[in-house]
Design a protein that fits this description.
single chain, 483 residues, alpha/beta, Rossmann fold, 3 domains, six-stranded parallel β-sheet, globular
Protein backbone atom coordinates (compact mmCIF):
# COMPACT_ATOMS: atom_id res chain seq x y z
CA UNK A 1 0.00 0.00 0.00
CA UNK A 2 1.08 3.58 -0.69
CA UNK A 3 1.28 5.42 2.62
CA UNK A 4 1.35 8.91 4.06
CA UNK A 5 2.95 8.62 7.52
CA UNK A 6 2.04 11.78 9.46
CA UNK A 7 4.13 11.04 12.53
CA UNK A 8 5.02 14.58 13.61
CA UNK A 9 7.45 14.68 16.51
CA UNK A 10 5.91 11.76 18.40
CA UNK A 11 9.14 9.72 18.22
CA UNK A 12 12.86 10.26 17.83
CA UNK A 13 14.36 10.20 14.36
CA UNK A 14 15.89 6.79 15.06
CA UNK A 15 12.52 5.36 16.12
CA UNK A 16 10.68 6.79 13.13
CA UNK A 17 13.31 5.33 10.80
CA UNK A 18 12.65 1.90 12.32
CA UNK A 19 8.89 2.31 11.92
CA UNK A 20 9.22 3.34 8.27
CA UNK A 21 11.61 0.47 7.61
CA UNK A 22 9.26 -1.95 9.33
CA UNK A 23 6.33 -0.86 7.17
CA UNK A 24 8.40 -1.10 3.99
CA UNK A 25 9.60 -4.59 4.97
CA UNK A 26 5.94 -5.63 5.06
CA UNK A 27 5.40 -4.57 1.48
CA UNK A 28 4.20 -0.98 1.95
CA UNK A 29 5.54 2.11 0.20
CA UNK A 30 5.95 5.31 2.21
CA UNK A 31 5.48 8.12 -0.30
CA UNK A 32 5.19 11.05 2.13
CA UNK A 33 6.31 11.46 5.73
CA UNK A 34 5.93 14.31 8.22
CA UNK A 35 8.44 13.83 11.02
CA UNK A 36 10.65 15.89 13.35
CA UNK A 37 11.92 19.09 11.75
CA UNK A 38 15.11 18.41 9.82
CA UNK A 39 14.37 14.70 9.51
CA UNK A 40 14.97 13.67 5.88
CA UNK A 41 16.82 10.32 5.55
CA UNK A 42 16.75 10.30 1.76
CA UNK A 43 19.55 7.75 1.58
CA UNK A 44 17.47 5.14 3.43
CA UNK A 45 14.16 6.20 1.82
CA UNK A 46 14.92 7.75 -1.60
CA UNK A 47 11.29 7.54 -2.78
CA UNK A 48 9.81 9.40 0.20
CA UNK A 49 8.99 13.11 0.41
CA UNK A 50 9.84 14.43 3.89
CA UNK A 51 8.45 17.45 5.72
CA UNK A 52 8.99 18.81 9.24
CA UNK A 53 6.26 18.77 11.88
CA UNK A 54 6.45 22.43 12.89
CA UNK A 55 6.86 23.49 9.27
CA UNK A 56 3.60 21.71 8.53
CA UNK A 57 1.92 22.98 11.68
CA UNK A 58 2.91 26.64 11.36
CA UNK A 59 -0.59 28.01 11.50
CA UNK A 60 0.04 31.34 9.83
CA UNK A 61 2.50 30.22 7.16
CA UNK A 62 1.32 30.39 3.55
CA UNK A 63 1.81 26.92 2.22
CA UNK A 64 2.53 28.12 -1.29
CA UNK A 65 6.07 28.81 -0.07
CA UNK A 66 6.60 25.04 0.26
CA UNK A 67 8.28 22.64 -2.12
CA UNK A 68 5.01 21.85 -3.93
CA UNK A 69 2.37 24.23 -5.23
CA UNK A 70 -1.23 23.18 -5.60
CA UNK A 71 -4.37 25.06 -6.64
CA UNK A 72 -6.29 26.86 -3.89
CA UNK A 73 -9.20 25.00 -2.34
CA UNK A 74 -12.34 25.23 -4.45
CA UNK A 75 -15.67 26.47 -3.13
CA UNK A 76 -17.06 22.96 -3.57
CA UNK A 77 -14.29 21.47 -1.43
CA UNK A 78 -14.67 24.16 1.24
CA UNK A 79 -18.40 23.52 1.45
CA UNK A 80 -17.85 19.77 1.73
CA UNK A 81 -15.45 20.40 4.61
CA UNK A 82 -17.46 22.93 6.64
CA UNK A 83 -17.41 20.71 9.73
CA UNK A 84 -13.63 20.40 9.49
CA UNK A 85 -13.32 24.17 9.20
CA UNK A 86 -15.35 24.74 12.37
CA UNK A 87 -13.18 22.32 14.35
CA UNK A 88 -9.90 23.66 12.96
CA UNK A 89 -10.80 27.24 13.90
CA UNK A 90 -11.13 26.09 17.51
CA UNK A 91 -8.08 23.82 17.24
CA UNK A 92 -5.99 26.90 16.48
CA UNK A 93 -6.48 28.07 20.07
CA UNK A 94 -3.53 25.77 20.76
CA UNK A 95 -0.88 27.53 18.66
CA UNK A 96 -2.41 30.70 17.18
CA UNK A 97 -4.54 31.99 20.03
CA UNK A 98 -3.95 35.62 19.04
CA UNK A 99 -4.97 35.18 15.39
CA UNK A 100 -8.39 36.59 14.51
CA UNK A 101 -11.10 34.59 12.76
CA UNK A 102 -10.23 35.83 9.26
CA UNK A 103 -6.54 34.97 9.71
CA UNK A 104 -7.50 31.52 10.89
CA UNK A 105 -9.85 30.95 7.96
CA UNK A 106 -7.21 32.03 5.45
CA UNK A 107 -4.72 29.65 7.03
CA UNK A 108 -7.29 26.88 6.88
CA UNK A 109 -8.07 27.47 3.20
CA UNK A 110 -4.35 27.39 2.37
CA UNK A 111 -3.74 24.15 4.25
CA UNK A 112 -6.89 22.60 2.82
CA UNK A 113 -5.76 23.34 -0.73
CA UNK A 114 -2.21 22.17 -0.04
CA UNK A 115 -3.10 18.82 1.48
CA UNK A 116 -5.89 18.16 -0.99
CA UNK A 117 -3.32 18.72 -3.73
CA UNK A 118 -0.75 16.45 -2.05
CA UNK A 119 -3.25 13.64 -1.51
CA UNK A 120 -4.51 13.97 -5.08
CA UNK A 121 -0.98 13.95 -6.51
CA UNK A 122 0.53 11.10 -4.50
CA UNK A 123 -2.66 9.01 -4.30
CA UNK A 124 -1.96 7.17 -1.04
CA UNK A 125 -4.04 4.15 -0.10
CA UNK A 126 -3.84 5.02 3.60
CA UNK A 127 -2.67 7.70 6.03
CA UNK A 128 -1.10 6.68 9.34
CA UNK A 129 -1.03 8.84 12.50
CA UNK A 130 0.62 8.04 15.86
CA UNK A 131 -2.35 9.48 17.78
CA UNK A 132 -5.82 10.81 17.09
CA UNK A 133 -4.94 13.81 14.89
CA UNK A 134 -5.35 17.00 16.89
CA UNK A 135 -2.86 19.40 15.35
CA UNK A 136 -4.59 21.51 12.72
CA UNK A 137 -2.68 20.20 9.70
CA UNK A 138 -3.01 16.58 10.89
CA UNK A 139 -6.74 16.90 11.35
CA UNK A 140 -7.18 18.46 7.88
CA UNK A 141 -5.28 15.53 6.35
CA UNK A 142 -7.41 13.02 8.28
CA UNK A 143 -10.72 14.54 7.24
CA UNK A 144 -9.61 14.93 3.62
CA UNK A 145 -8.63 11.26 3.61
CA UNK A 146 -12.11 10.28 4.79
CA UNK A 147 -13.66 12.48 2.09
CA UNK A 148 -11.47 10.93 -0.61
CA UNK A 149 -12.06 7.35 0.52
CA UNK A 150 -8.50 6.88 1.81
CA UNK A 151 -8.09 4.55 4.79
CA UNK A 152 -6.80 6.09 8.03
CA UNK A 153 -5.06 4.51 11.01
CA UNK A 154 -4.55 6.28 14.34
CA UNK A 155 -3.86 5.35 17.94
CA UNK A 156 -5.01 6.47 21.38
CA UNK A 157 -3.29 5.97 24.69
CA UNK A 158 -5.20 4.66 27.74
CA UNK A 159 -4.54 4.69 31.47
CA UNK A 160 -4.72 0.89 31.74
CA UNK A 161 -1.20 -0.49 32.05
CA UNK A 162 0.76 0.44 28.89
CA UNK A 163 -2.15 -0.28 26.56
CA UNK A 164 -2.98 1.63 23.38
CA UNK A 165 -6.08 1.44 21.16
CA UNK A 166 -5.97 1.52 17.35
CA UNK A 167 -8.65 3.07 15.12
CA UNK A 168 -9.74 3.28 11.55
CA UNK A 169 -11.81 6.47 11.41
CA UNK A 170 -11.62 7.39 15.09
CA UNK A 171 -15.05 9.03 14.88
CA UNK A 172 -16.56 5.56 14.89
CA UNK A 173 -14.42 3.98 17.59
CA UNK A 174 -12.46 0.75 17.63
CA UNK A 175 -13.59 -1.97 15.24
CA UNK A 176 -11.37 -4.44 17.10
CA UNK A 177 -13.12 -3.59 20.38
CA UNK A 178 -16.55 -4.03 18.85
CA UNK A 179 -15.50 -7.38 17.39
CA UNK A 180 -14.12 -8.57 20.73
CA UNK A 181 -17.26 -7.58 22.62
CA UNK A 182 -19.49 -9.32 20.10
CA UNK A 183 -17.38 -12.49 20.40
CA UNK A 184 -17.39 -12.35 24.21
CA UNK A 185 -21.12 -11.64 24.64
CA UNK A 186 -22.69 -13.86 27.29
CA UNK A 187 -19.40 -14.93 28.86
CA UNK A 188 -18.21 -14.10 32.36
CA UNK A 189 -14.46 -13.87 32.78
CA UNK A 190 -12.27 -13.91 35.86
CA UNK A 191 -9.16 -11.89 36.64
CA UNK A 192 -7.09 -14.91 35.68
CA UNK A 193 -8.43 -14.62 32.12
CA UNK A 194 -6.72 -11.23 31.76
CA UNK A 195 -3.15 -10.68 30.62
CA UNK A 196 -0.78 -10.22 33.59
CA UNK A 197 -0.31 -6.48 32.99
CA UNK A 198 -4.05 -5.76 32.98
CA UNK A 199 -4.72 -8.07 35.92
CA UNK A 200 -1.99 -6.28 37.88
CA UNK A 201 -3.46 -2.88 36.95
CA UNK A 202 -6.93 -3.95 38.12
CA UNK A 203 -5.67 -5.33 41.42
CA UNK A 204 -3.63 -2.21 42.12
CA UNK A 205 -6.44 0.19 41.22
CA UNK A 206 -9.00 -1.56 43.39
CA UNK A 207 -6.70 -1.95 46.39
CA UNK A 208 -7.23 0.36 49.40
CA UNK A 209 -4.91 3.34 49.52
CA UNK A 210 -3.87 3.19 45.86
CA UNK A 211 -2.99 6.65 44.51
CA UNK A 212 -5.33 7.10 41.53
CA UNK A 213 -3.89 10.45 40.46
CA UNK A 214 -3.18 10.19 36.71
CA UNK A 215 0.44 10.51 35.58
CA UNK A 216 -0.35 13.55 33.43
CA UNK A 217 -1.65 15.42 36.52
CA UNK A 218 1.62 14.79 38.34
CA UNK A 219 3.54 15.99 35.27
CA UNK A 220 1.51 19.20 35.07
CA UNK A 221 1.95 19.97 38.75
CA UNK A 222 5.69 19.37 38.48
CA UNK A 223 5.92 21.60 35.40
CA UNK A 224 4.21 24.43 37.29
CA UNK A 225 5.76 23.80 40.69
CA UNK A 226 6.63 26.81 42.87
CA UNK A 227 10.32 26.70 41.95
CA UNK A 228 9.62 26.40 38.21
CA UNK A 229 7.13 29.27 38.39
CA UNK A 230 9.72 31.46 40.16
CA UNK A 231 12.31 30.79 37.46
CA UNK A 232 9.66 31.48 34.80
CA UNK A 233 8.79 34.83 36.40
CA UNK A 234 12.46 35.81 36.61
CA UNK A 235 12.88 35.04 32.90
CA UNK A 236 9.80 37.09 31.97
CA UNK A 237 10.94 40.03 34.11
CA UNK A 238 14.37 39.96 32.48
CA UNK A 239 12.89 39.94 28.99
CA UNK A 240 10.48 42.73 29.95
CA UNK A 241 13.32 44.98 31.09
CA UNK A 242 15.21 44.19 27.90
CA UNK A 243 12.31 45.16 25.58
CA UNK A 244 11.11 48.01 27.89
CA UNK A 245 7.66 46.43 28.33
CA UNK A 246 8.06 46.05 32.10
CA UNK A 247 5.86 49.04 32.99
CA UNK A 248 2.98 48.00 30.72
CA UNK A 249 3.14 44.41 31.92
CA UNK A 250 3.33 45.48 35.57
CA UNK A 251 0.22 47.63 35.15
CA UNK A 252 -1.68 44.80 33.51
CA UNK A 253 -0.59 42.36 36.21
CA UNK A 254 -1.73 44.54 39.12
CA UNK A 255 -5.01 45.28 37.35
CA UNK A 256 -5.68 41.56 37.02
CA UNK A 257 -4.53 40.92 40.57
CA UNK A 258 -6.74 43.51 42.27
CA UNK A 259 -9.62 44.18 39.85
CA UNK A 260 -10.67 41.13 37.83
CA UNK A 261 -9.24 37.82 36.73
CA UNK A 262 -10.37 34.32 35.81
CA UNK A 263 -9.97 32.90 39.31
CA UNK A 264 -11.94 35.70 40.93
CA UNK A 265 -14.82 35.08 38.54
CA UNK A 266 -14.92 31.41 39.48
CA UNK A 267 -14.48 31.91 43.23
CA UNK A 268 -17.30 34.46 43.28
CA UNK A 269 -19.71 31.92 41.78
CA UNK A 270 -18.69 28.69 43.49
CA UNK A 271 -20.94 26.90 45.99
CA UNK A 272 -20.19 24.02 48.32
CA UNK A 273 -21.77 20.77 47.11
CA UNK A 274 -24.50 18.96 49.03
CA UNK A 275 -23.78 15.25 48.67
CA UNK A 276 -27.27 14.37 49.89
CA UNK A 277 -28.81 16.05 46.84
CA UNK A 278 -29.21 13.87 43.72
CA UNK A 279 -26.78 15.21 41.14
CA UNK A 280 -24.80 14.54 38.00
CA UNK A 281 -21.11 15.45 38.08
CA UNK A 282 -19.54 17.34 35.16
CA UNK A 283 -15.78 17.86 35.57
CA UNK A 284 -14.68 20.32 32.90
CA UNK A 285 -11.99 18.97 30.57
CA UNK A 286 -8.67 20.78 30.25
CA UNK A 287 -8.54 22.93 27.11
CA UNK A 288 -7.21 23.35 24.49
CA UNK A 289 -6.53 19.63 24.17
CA UNK A 290 -7.32 16.60 22.03
CA UNK A 291 -9.88 15.15 24.45
CA UNK A 292 -12.28 17.96 23.52
CA UNK A 293 -10.95 19.09 20.14
CA UNK A 294 -11.52 17.11 18.00
CA UNK A 295 -12.92 14.33 20.18
CA UNK A 296 -15.63 16.50 21.67
CA UNK A 297 -16.85 17.53 18.21
CA UNK A 298 -19.36 20.35 18.85
CA UNK A 299 -19.06 19.72 22.59
CA UNK A 300 -15.60 21.23 22.54
CA UNK A 301 -17.92 24.05 23.65
CA UNK A 302 -18.39 22.68 27.16
CA UNK A 303 -20.98 25.32 27.97
CA UNK A 304 -23.17 23.69 25.30
CA UNK A 305 -22.69 20.41 27.14
CA UNK A 306 -23.75 22.01 30.43
CA UNK A 307 -26.79 23.61 28.76
CA UNK A 308 -27.83 20.25 27.30
CA UNK A 309 -27.58 18.57 30.69
CA UNK A 310 -29.39 21.39 32.45
CA UNK A 311 -32.34 21.02 30.09
CA UNK A 312 -32.41 17.24 30.51
CA UNK A 313 -32.15 16.93 34.30
CA UNK A 314 -35.15 16.01 36.47
CA UNK A 315 -36.43 19.00 38.45
CA UNK A 316 -35.04 17.74 41.75
CA UNK A 317 -31.56 16.94 40.39
CA UNK A 318 -28.54 19.24 40.20
CA UNK A 319 -25.55 19.44 37.91
CA UNK A 320 -22.28 19.98 39.76
CA UNK A 321 -19.58 21.49 37.54
CA UNK A 322 -15.94 21.68 38.61
CA UNK A 323 -13.04 23.25 36.77
CA UNK A 324 -10.10 21.07 35.80
CA UNK A 325 -7.42 21.39 38.52
CA UNK A 326 -4.65 22.37 36.08
CA UNK A 327 -6.68 24.61 33.74
CA UNK A 328 -5.36 27.84 35.27
CA UNK A 329 -1.71 26.79 35.55
CA UNK A 330 -0.58 27.76 32.01
CA UNK A 331 -2.50 31.06 31.90
CA UNK A 332 -2.31 32.20 35.51
CA UNK A 333 -4.76 35.03 36.14
CA UNK A 334 -5.46 35.61 32.46
CA UNK A 335 -8.61 34.87 30.54
CA UNK A 336 -8.05 32.93 27.32
CA UNK A 337 -9.78 31.82 24.16
CA UNK A 338 -11.07 28.71 25.93
CA UNK A 339 -11.89 30.38 29.26
CA UNK A 340 -12.99 33.85 28.28
CA UNK A 341 -14.50 36.57 30.48
CA UNK A 342 -17.98 35.52 31.56
CA UNK A 343 -17.34 31.81 30.85
CA UNK A 344 -18.18 30.65 34.35
CA UNK A 345 -21.08 33.09 34.63
CA UNK A 346 -22.71 31.43 31.63
CA UNK A 347 -22.52 28.08 33.39
CA UNK A 348 -23.57 29.26 36.85
CA UNK A 349 -26.72 31.00 35.61
CA UNK A 350 -28.15 27.77 34.17
CA UNK A 351 -31.01 26.26 36.13
CA UNK A 352 -30.08 23.44 38.50
CA UNK A 353 -26.36 24.03 37.86
CA UNK A 354 -23.77 24.74 40.55
CA UNK A 355 -20.07 25.53 40.24
CA UNK A 356 -18.27 23.71 43.06
CA UNK A 357 -14.90 24.71 44.52
CA UNK A 358 -11.95 23.51 42.49
CA UNK A 359 -10.47 22.13 45.73
CA UNK A 360 -13.37 19.68 46.13
CA UNK A 361 -12.16 16.09 45.72
CA UNK A 362 -13.13 14.76 42.32
CA UNK A 363 -13.20 11.29 43.87
CA UNK A 364 -15.75 12.40 46.48
CA UNK A 365 -17.84 14.06 43.78
CA UNK A 366 -17.74 10.85 41.74
CA UNK A 367 -18.57 8.64 44.75
CA UNK A 368 -21.82 10.47 45.52
CA UNK A 369 -22.94 11.25 41.96
CA UNK A 370 -25.76 9.46 40.15
CA UNK A 371 -23.64 9.69 36.99
CA UNK A 372 -20.45 11.30 35.71
CA UNK A 373 -20.21 13.27 32.46
CA UNK A 374 -17.21 12.87 30.15
CA UNK A 375 -16.10 13.47 26.57
CA UNK A 376 -12.89 11.46 26.37
CA UNK A 377 -11.17 12.32 29.63
CA UNK A 378 -9.77 10.00 32.28
CA UNK A 379 -12.60 10.92 34.63
CA UNK A 380 -14.97 8.71 32.63
CA UNK A 381 -12.82 5.65 33.25
CA UNK A 382 -12.43 6.62 36.91
CA UNK A 383 -16.23 6.65 37.16
CA UNK A 384 -16.43 3.16 35.64
CA UNK A 385 -13.86 1.89 38.13
CA UNK A 386 -16.07 3.44 40.83
CA UNK A 387 -19.04 1.50 39.39
CA UNK A 388 -20.74 4.69 38.22
CA UNK A 389 -22.54 5.17 34.88
CA UNK A 390 -21.10 7.67 32.41
CA UNK A 391 -22.96 10.14 30.20
CA UNK A 392 -20.70 10.38 27.18
CA UNK A 393 -20.54 13.29 24.77
CA UNK A 394 -18.29 13.45 21.71
CA UNK A 395 -16.37 10.62 20.05
CA UNK A 396 -13.70 7.97 20.59
CA UNK A 397 -13.26 7.78 24.33
CA UNK A 398 -11.24 4.58 24.55
CA UNK A 399 -13.74 3.23 27.12
CA UNK A 400 -16.88 4.28 25.20
CA UNK A 401 -17.89 0.66 24.50
CA UNK A 402 -18.38 -0.09 28.19
CA UNK A 403 -22.07 -1.07 28.46
CA UNK A 404 -22.93 1.68 30.93
CA UNK A 405 -21.48 4.57 28.96
CA UNK A 406 -24.58 6.32 27.62
CA UNK A 407 -23.66 8.15 24.41
CA UNK A 408 -25.73 11.34 23.99
CA UNK A 409 -25.83 14.17 21.48
CA UNK A 410 -28.81 16.36 22.40
CA UNK A 411 -31.39 17.05 25.10
CA UNK A 412 -33.66 14.15 24.13
CA UNK A 413 -30.93 11.48 24.14
CA UNK A 414 -29.54 12.95 27.35
CA UNK A 415 -32.99 12.87 28.96
CA UNK A 416 -33.45 9.22 27.98
CA UNK A 417 -30.08 8.29 29.45
CA UNK A 418 -30.82 10.07 32.73
CA UNK A 419 -34.23 8.36 32.94
CA UNK A 420 -32.50 4.96 32.79
CA UNK A 421 -29.94 6.06 35.36
CA UNK A 422 -32.68 7.37 37.66
CA UNK A 423 -34.42 3.99 37.61
CA UNK A 424 -31.22 2.42 38.87
CA UNK A 425 -28.10 1.08 37.18
CA UNK A 426 -26.25 -1.77 38.84
CA UNK A 427 -22.66 -1.91 37.60
CA UNK A 428 -20.68 -4.84 38.97
CA UNK A 429 -17.09 -6.01 39.18
CA UNK A 430 -18.02 -8.60 36.59
CA UNK A 431 -18.97 -5.86 34.12
CA UNK A 432 -15.55 -4.28 34.50
CA UNK A 433 -13.67 -7.55 34.14
CA UNK A 434 -15.70 -8.55 31.07
CA UNK A 435 -14.94 -5.19 29.47
CA UNK A 436 -11.24 -5.47 30.28
CA UNK A 437 -11.13 -8.92 28.67
CA UNK A 438 -12.37 -7.48 25.36
CA UNK A 439 -10.08 -4.47 25.83
CA UNK A 440 -7.20 -6.89 26.40
CA UNK A 441 -7.87 -8.52 23.02
CA UNK A 442 -8.39 -5.23 21.16
CA UNK A 443 -5.41 -3.20 22.47
CA UNK A 444 -1.66 -3.36 22.01
CA UNK A 445 1.19 -2.80 24.41
CA UNK A 446 3.53 0.16 23.96
CA UNK A 447 6.15 1.20 26.48
CA UNK A 448 6.75 4.74 25.22
CA UNK A 449 6.35 5.64 21.55
CA UNK A 450 2.62 6.34 21.12
CA UNK A 451 1.57 7.29 24.62
CA UNK A 452 4.72 8.69 26.16
CA UNK A 453 7.05 6.86 28.53
CA UNK A 454 5.19 4.35 30.71
CA UNK A 455 6.94 3.79 34.01
CA UNK A 456 4.81 0.73 34.70
CA UNK A 457 5.72 -1.03 31.44
CA UNK A 458 7.90 -4.11 31.46
CA UNK A 459 8.24 -4.57 27.70
CA UNK A 460 11.27 -3.46 25.72
CA UNK A 461 11.46 -0.68 23.17
CA UNK A 462 12.05 -3.28 20.48
CA UNK A 463 8.85 -5.12 21.42
CA UNK A 464 6.94 -1.82 21.42
CA UNK A 465 8.15 -1.02 17.92
CA UNK A 466 7.25 -4.51 16.73
CA UNK A 467 3.74 -4.17 18.23
CA UNK A 468 3.20 -0.79 16.56
CA UNK A 469 4.33 -1.88 13.10
CA UNK A 470 2.37 -5.13 13.27
CA UNK A 471 -0.75 -3.28 14.41
CA UNK A 472 -0.50 -0.76 11.55
CA UNK A 473 0.07 -3.56 9.05
CA UNK A 474 -2.93 -5.49 10.38
CA UNK A 475 -5.19 -2.45 10.11
CA UNK A 476 -4.02 -1.69 6.59
CA UNK A 477 -4.77 -5.24 5.47
CA UNK A 478 -8.02 -5.62 7.40
CA UNK A 479 -11.40 -6.07 5.77
CA UNK A 480 -13.48 -4.52 8.55
CA UNK A 481 -12.93 -0.89 7.55
CA UNK A 482 -16.20 1.01 7.92
CA UNK A 483 -17.37 4.52 7.09
Amino acid sequence: MRLFVIWGKSSTEQTLTKILAGLISRGHEVVYCVGPDGYAPQQEFPNTVFEGHFEAWDDLNLYYEGAFKYPPASKELIVQMYKTEAIVLSMMNKRSKNANVNERKHYYYNKLGYWHGALTKFKPDAVVFPIIPHKSYQFIIHELALLLGIKTVSFQETVVSDRVMVYQNFWQGSALMKQAQTKNTGQNFSLNDLSPDIKNYYQQYTSPGFDRTPDYMLDWKNRFSVINKIFGKIKIIGQSFADLSIFKKSGNYFYKLFVENIKKEYLKLQQEPDFNQPYVYLPLHFQPERTTCPQGDVFDDQILMAETLSNALPKDWLLYVKEHPVQWLPTGLNYSGVRYKGYYQRIARLKNVRLVPITTSTFDLTDHARAVVAIAGTVGWEAIMKLKPVIGFGAAAWYEDFPYVFKVSDVDSCRRAIAIIKQGVNITDQDRINFLKSFDEASLRDSRFLAGFKKNSDITEEQSLKNIVESIDKELKSDYHFN
